[in-house]
Write a structure and sequence with these properties.
α2 crosses α3, α2 crosses α4 and α7 packs across α10. The protein is built from 14 helices and three strands. Strands 1-2-3 form a three-stranded antiparallel sheet. The chain folds into two domains: 119 residues, Tyrosine recombinase, N-terminal domain (DNA polymerase, domain 1, Orthogonal Bundle), CATH 1.10.150.130; 201 residues, Intergrase catalytic core (hpI Integrase, Chain A, Orthogonal Bundle), CATH 1.10.443. The protein starts with 10 loop residues before the first helix and ends in a 12-residue tail after the last helix. A hairpin with a 2-residue loop joins β1 and β2. By secondary structure, the chain is mostly helical.
């Protein structure tokens, strides 16, 4: 029940008190550190969009609508280079709405607002979804351009070995002075790691959470084939064989690219800690800058998951095999990851099976 006395706090004051509560729950184990960080970040964004001096109780359903739409149109700040016209993904919009809803639910119970304005919002999911860019797979040329740039970084056979490729194994006290007068930050001297990240995402399509959760021990060899035991949603695991080129880059990374660290994580930051989910997009953007502009298109980690599914299916790979690679529980889910490719219908009709001769020709 709502308290009788209303406490007219500003948006900033209510946000500060709510974030203190979130941190207290984190300390007691009621919330994970990652979840608390997300809530705190979304609340800080809400304060900026609503206005810190605005009284929380004065916000109406229309005000909240405007805030939700302003967030939806807001470029993703986690990207190193914001996409022109880029907006928040549908999942980010849904997460932000949940965070704001949780804030107002607490505000209603504590007497900071008389009526929860979230119940009066009118912006539909369809309107919010229309604001996000089309999330589609890279074309074959775009994907091959990105993979080629990753191969160049890794020094794969036929590719030039990049300057400073062995830099990640330098001691923690090393500086970037050896790279030139100005030098480069150590988090930009991780070529083998960045190449491996892009190759795993582009060819195997893991979820970004699965990628950063991977440990060195999850990769094993059986009968000469390198496998990745992926720990997916709901505690499910799947063992997926690595393509030969990816397995070679993995081995090179383990031998000379991964710094010595107590952490068992496969992917480490230059500080020797497990790589965070938010860092993966910056890695992709960094590799994309090496791609020829004519073959370059910005893509998210989930877009690379779409790319894997789309091109495996376009190449007539068995649908159930693709489902198992991606870790889907049923084939129906796989349909959402199958994107249209330019010219694919023309190719399919040129190779129509009913028009082939008995010997396989036309």
């Amino acid at each position: 029940m709502r308290p009788a006395d209303l406490n007219r706090l500003t948006v900033q004051e209510s946000a500060d008190r709510y974030v203190e509560l979130i941190r207290a729950k984190m300390l007691t184990g009621a919330l994970s550190a990652a979840t608390a960080e997300v809530y705190a970040r979304d609340v800080a964004t809400f304060v900026r969009l609503a206005g810190e001096r605005q009284v929380l109780d004065d916000l109406t359903g229309e005000d909240v609508d405007a805030i939700l739409l302003a967030f939806a149109r807001k470029p993703d700040e986690r990207r190193a280079e914001p996409v022109a016209g880029g907006v928040q993904s549908a999942s980010s919009q849904a997460r932000f709405r949940r965070s704001v809803s949780a804030l107002f639910k607490h505000a209603t119970l504590t007497g900071w607002v008389q009526v929860n304005p979230m119940a009066l919002t009118t912006v539909t999911a369809k309107e919010r979804g229309g604001l996000r860019p089309q999330r589609r797979a890279l074309t074959r040329e775009q994907a091959q351009g990105l993979i080629g740039a990753a191969r160049d970084l890794s020094g794969s056979p036929g590719s030039p070995v990049p300057d400073g490729a062995a830099a990640p194994v330098a001691s923690a006290g090393a500086t970037g002075a050896a790279d030139g007068k100005r030098g480069r930050r150590r988090d930009q001297r991780t070529e083998l790691r960045d190449a491996l990240i892009v190759l795993l995402l582009s060819t195997m399509g893991p979820r970004v959470s699965e990628l950063v959760r991977a440990n060195v021990e999850d990769f094993y060899t059986n009968d000469g084939v390198r496998y990745w035991r992926i720990f997916g949603k709901g505690g499910k695991t799947r063992d997926v064989p690595l393509p030969g080129d990816v397995a070679r880059v993995l081995q090179a990374y383990l031998e000379r690219g991964r710094p010595e660290a107590a952490d068992k994580a496969l992917l480490l930051s230059w500080r020797g800690r497990r790589l965070a989910r938010g860092d993966v997009q910056a890695v992709i953007d960094r590799v994309q800058r090496q791609v020829d502009p004519d073959r370059r298109r910005s893509v998210t980690p989930h877009g690379l998951r779409h790319t894997t599914a789309t091109h495996l299916l376009a190449d007539a790979v068995d649908m159930d095999a693709v489902r198992r690679v991606l870790g889907h529980s049923d084939l129906a889910t796989l349909g959402r990851y199958r994107d249209e490719l330019p010219g694919e219908l023309e190719v399919a009709m040129r190779a129509h099976p009913l028009l082939r001769g008995p010997s396989g020709g036309r």
